[in-house]
Amino acid sequence: PFSTGEVLKNLNKFYKRKEIQRLGTENGLDARLFHQAFISFRKYIMESSSVSADLHIILNDICCGAGKVCLLGHVDDLFPFFLRHAKQIFPMLDCMDDLRKISDLRLPPNWYPDARAIQRKIIFHAGPTNSGKTYHAIQRFLSAKSGIYCGPLKLLAHEIFQKSNDADVPCDLVTGEERVYASEDARQALHIACTIEMCSTNTPYEVAVIDEIQMIRDPARGWAWTRALLGLCAEEIHVCGEAAAIDLVTELMYTTGEEVEVRNYKRLTPLTVLDYALESLDNLRPGDCIVCFSKNDIYSLSRQIEARGLECAVIYGSLPPGTKLEQAKKFNDPNDPCKILVATDAIGMGLNLCIRRIIFNSIVKPTVNEKGEKEIDSITTSQALQIAGRAGRYGSSFKQGEVTTMHHDDLMQLKEILNEPVRPVKAAGLHPTPEQIEMFAYHLPDATLSNLIDIFVSLSQVDGLYFVCNIDDFKFLADMIQHIPLNLRSRYVFCTAPLNRKEPFVCTTLLKFARQFSRNEPLTFDWLCRHTKWPLAAPKNIKELVHLEAVHDVFDLYLWLSYRFMDMFPDAVLVRDIQKKLDHIIQVGVCNITKLIRASQSVAAPGTAEVVSEDFPLSRTKRDPRAVSDHRGAKSMEALSIAVDVPPERRAKNLKTYRSATRQEDLKSHGRGSLANRLLREGLLTQEMLRQLESEWQDQHRNGRYGLGSGRDDQNNSKETGRKKK
């Protein structure tokens, strides 16, 4: 037997030797894999009841010879055993060269031989929102013998589909969930309007239009724009978007041997940044649009607006497309009493709105960075221009647009953001294809799909013009359905399904879809109705409205899968019919949204975190006549929010953030309000903890740590400006 202490000391010495690390790199073990392999190797030696005889002898020789002039053994002698163990836990080490070749993403243009076989003409229509750039590209699309329009949203694809057919140019609509033919006999038209993920790189066209090209940098969807730009087989490619993407598109086309013609456009109507903030909802005028970055803010503001006797329309991202269009129509109708719009940045694309003035309720927004981490950060110049540009749309009743903020504190920072140059787009997104993953699986038959993706990304090599898109959503779904027996191609398709993983009902439904699919049992209309409890009634509160939105997403998911597995999801027509009925039910709920909010607050049930009262922390306290959230309140609330998307383990940390972001009076007020009550009900706070919080706050106040003097306030305000906060 050998001394475990001596063995551990020598193993750690082995791990730290530069020669061993170099040998590991030569055998395919990068720093991360080397570390993981060593941890496993050390555990195997230290915890195994017995190790192989040859390894036991080597370890004894090393331990017995340590410190002597003539060594019996050296720690380097462990390397063959270490490498053998590493290959057992990382099978890809035996075929590393092949895997590196498969995951080599340095020449994406070569993936599209049909596009490389022709000389394409690239025309970049560059300009801000409301400059007519897309209009000119669409005119060329309509005049061509054949064409394809690729947009980021179903709403945009539907708009071009409608315009084209209205202009007597037969055009089909293709989205992830449906295909609508222009002709009654379902014969394919020569023109197609589609969402960008659905474009074909094999069909030849005379003209192709790629809209919103700056989204090529999107961490999740950028790969679709890269694929369209490099792979569309069209004589003319008309690219529309921000001028910030010109340099990248030019460089990408240089690698394909194609030149880029740039056509610059200026805004068609003037846009003015006002020198004053709104300050109070009493100052709202017809044609105003308040832009929020939180559904909570939308609920709160819509109720406060209607309490003033004004009607308002509501638009946010999770609403069905039909409901968004209906709300937009209501707001645009000059004969409708609804003259105010409360919306998220979902209005930035896809909706034609008659807006006189854009009012930013906040200039901070929750975002997801390249690593998939949530951050709260000031909106970018690109985002601010996209949203502000919706005011004063050309051809609307307002000949010029205005933009301001809800609060004076934010106005100066908004002006700075709008005056900054838009950051140039530096890289284009890529995503592993099903064929690449299948080749990986051939070499690594025992690896899970999630592991295959991890290995692919870790080994992938990309040119400086590209990056690998965030695959967290893909991996989440891969892990969720891993236990279900599916072939690799079907598993891959299920993992690319477009759903929000924060919606438990939708995720559960996908799991049930996959399980029944694996048993070769068709997902029928009756089964779906039982699962969703259809027919559904109009919502009575916000919680029920949110559930109806989730059911709409489930119907979308069914239709998306029916497009790929027609035999297993056979009732697409019936599902589309009830989805239209559900859309109408949701429209009724949104039209009565303030009633739903009041009903939700009267019930005050645990778990209805989306419901916001007027004294909710997102809003200013009753001492402030503005009674709406400022950007600091939004920051603290986003951090604190006891909402469905905040894991329980983060709530204690969030409470600390909230405590440091509010004043003593706020804490006392909230101690009597709904927040404290809900925390007490959910077991996240006790009466003793609440008393301790008040006591600590009073001590800090007495010590001057959070003094209320105007000098300290001014200093805090100046520090707050431009601050980035995760």
Structural write-up:
This is ATP-dependent RNA helicase SUPV3L1, mitochondrial. The chain is an alpha/beta fold. The protein folds into 4 domains: 86 residues, Rna Polymerase Sigma Factor, Chain: A, CATH 1.10.1740.140; 145 residues, 3-Layer(aba) Sandwich (Rossmann fold), CATH 3.40.50.300; 148 residues, P-loop containing nucleotide triphosphate hydrolases (Rossmann fold, 3-Layer(aba) Sandwich); 131 residues, Up-down Bundle (Methane Monooxygenase Hydroxylase, Chain G, domain 1). The strands form 5 sheets. The protein has an 8-stranded mixed β-sheet, sandwiched between helices. Strand 4 and strand 5 form a beta hairpin. The chain is globular. The C terminus is likely disordered.
Which features does this protein show?
Rossmann fold; globular; Suv3_C_1; six-stranded parallel beta sheet; 726 residues; eight-stranded mixed beta sheet; Suv3_N; Rna Polymerase Sigma Factor, Chain: A; single chain; ATP binding
